[in-house]
Write a structure and sequence with these properties.
Blueprint: H1 2-7, H2 9-12, H3 16-54, H4 62-80, H5 86-115, H6 121-132, H7 138-158, H8 166-203, E1 211-212, H9 216-226, E2 231-240, H10 243-250, H11 252-267, E3 273-278, E4 281-289, H12 299-305, E5 320-328, H13 336-352, E6 358-363
Parallel strand pairs: 1-3, 5-6
Antiparallel strand pairs: 2-4, 2-5, 3-4
Length: 364
C-alpha cells in the first residue's frame, strides 16, 4: 500500500496540510488557463461537428448531438462557476470532465456507425486533452483515462464495431502520459515548496521566527475582513520597558535571548497573530468574542511573571507595556496605519503612566 502511495506525488510529496494549500495555490494560478482550455475544447468539438457535416453526416446525428451537449456543458459551467470556492470549482470540473468523456464515447459510437469503424485518432486526442488539463493530479487523470479506456473496450467487445488498433494506441498514449504526469506533479509541488520557503524567509524574522513587518499588512486586512457579528478585533502594540538599559548592562546577546523568550510567550497562543515590528516592539492581533476581554491585557503580567532579571529596571525584572485598540464588527473600513497610530498613542500613555501595564481603547 505504501509503495502505491509513494507513486502518487499528491499523496506522498507534501504533508496533508501543505497538499491542501498547494491545491488552492494550483487552482488560483491556473484558473484562467483552465477556463481558456475549456473554451478551446468547445471550439474543437464544434469544428469536428462542422467537418462531419461537410463530409455528409447529418447535423443532428448521434455523434454531433453528443458533441453539442458536451460543448454546452463545458460552456455553461465555465460561465457560471465564478462564485464557487477553489475546492468546489475543482470538483465541478472533474464531474464535467467525466460527463464529457461519456458524451464523447457516445460520439465515438455514432461516428463508428457512420464510417463503419473507430479510428485511432479520436480516443488518443481525448487522452492527450485529459493530460493537458492543469488542475487535475495524477490519480484524478487516471480515473478519467480509465473511463475513456472502458468506453473503448466496451465498443470493442460489446458491439460489432471494428476498433482496429484503437485500444493499443490508446493504452500506449496513456502510459506515456502517466509517466509525464507523475514527473509534472512532482515538479509542481517542488516549485511550490521552493516558493513557499522563499516567501516564509521574506516574511519571517530571523531571530525570533515570528512574522515580520512586511507580512503584517495583508494578514491584518484578512483578519478585519473575516471578523463576524458578535466578535471583536484587538490590535496591540507591545514594547519592552527599559530595553536599552538591559542591552547596555547585559549585552546584546542576552538582549536577543529576551526577545526570543518573549516571542515564545506571545506565540504560545495559536489564535494570536504575532509580528515583530522592529527592535523590541511587537504587534499582536486577536479575534475574540465581544463578551470576553482580550487576552492582550494579560501580557504585561505574564511577562513579569517570567521573572527575567533586569537590574536597571525599577521593577527588577523584564516588563513590557502595551497599547490596545479594540474594534467592533464590522471592522473592514479601518486601515492599518490608522490603527497602528492609535495603538502607538495608547502605548505612549502606558509608558507615561509608569510602564508595565496595558492601555485599551474601544473604537465604534
Amino acid at each position: 500500500m505504501q509503495l502505491i502511495k509513494n507513486y502518487f506525488p499528491s499523496l506522498s510529496y507534501l504533508d496533508p496540510a501543505s497538499e491542501a494549500e498547494f491545491r488552492l495555490y494550483l487552482v488560483a494560478s491556473t484558473r484562467h488557463i483552465a477556463q481558456r482550455l475549456a473554451l478551446v475544447c468547445v471550439a474543437l468539438m464544434l469544428l469536428f461537428s462542422i467537418t462531419d457535416i461537410l463530409v455528409g453526416d447529418s447535423w443532428y446525428s448521434l455523434g454531433n448531438l453528443s458533441r453539442y451537449t458536451a460543448a454546452g456543458l463545458i460552456l455553461l459551467y465555465a460561465l457560471t462557476n465564478k462564485t464557487l470556492n477553489a475546492e468546489q470549482w475543482l470538483q465541478g470540473w472533474l464531474g464535467i470532465s467525466a460527463l464529457v468523456i461519456l458524451l464523447l464515447s457516445i460520439t465515438f459510437y455514432g461516428s463508428s456507425l457512420y464510417y463503419g469503424k473507430l479510428g485511432e485518432g479520436g480516443p488518443m486526442v481525448v487522452a492527450f486533452a485529459i493530460a493537458a488539463i492543469p488542475i487535475f493530479n495524477l490519480q484524478q487523470k487516471i480515473l478519467l483515462w480509465l473511463q475513456l479506456t472502458t468506453a473503448v473496450l466496451y465498443l470493442k467487445y460489446c458491439t460489432v464495431i471494428d476498433t482496429g488498433w484503437s485500444v493499443f494506441y490508446l493504452i500506449i498514449t496513456i502510459l506515456l502520459c502517466l509517466s509525464w504526469q507523475r514527473q509534472f506533479d512532482r515538479l509542481l509541488r517542488s516549485q511550490f515548496k521552493t516558493v513557499r520557503l522563499e516567501q516564509q524567509k521574506a516574511e519571517t524574522d530571523q531571530l525570533t521566527g515570528l512574522l515580520n513587518r512586511r507580512s503584517f499588512e495583508q494578514r491584518l486586512q484578512e483578519k478585519l475582513q473575516s471578523l463576524q457579528a458578535g466578535q471583536q478585533l484587538s490590535l496591540g502594540l507591545l514594547d519592552i520597558d527599559y530595553f536599552k538599559r538591559y542591552n547596555d548592562h547585559y549585552g546584546h546577546l542576552d538582549g536577543d535571548l529576551v526577545l526570543v523568550q518573549l516571542s515564545r510567550l506571545l506565540s504560545a497562543d495559536p489564535t494570536l497573530l504575532v509580528v515583530r515590528f522592529g527592535g523590541e516592539e511587537f504587534i499582536l492581533v486577536e479575534q475574540h468574542n465581544a463578551d470576553i476581554s482580550t487576552s492582550l491585557l494579560q501580557l504585561p503580567d505574564k511577562l513579569a511573571a517570567m521573572a527575567i532579571p533586569h537590574k536597571n529596571s525599577p521593577f527588577g525584572v523584564v516588563t513590557a507595556s502595551i497599547g490596545i485598540i479594540t474594534l467592533n464588527y464590522p471592522a473592514s473600513g479601518y486601515q492599518s496605519g490608522q490603527l497602528m497610530h492609535q495603538a502607538d498613542q495608547l502605548l505612549y500613555q502606558a509608558k507615561q503612566q509608569g510602564r508595565n501595564q496595558a492601555r485599551q481603547q474601544f473604537l465604534n
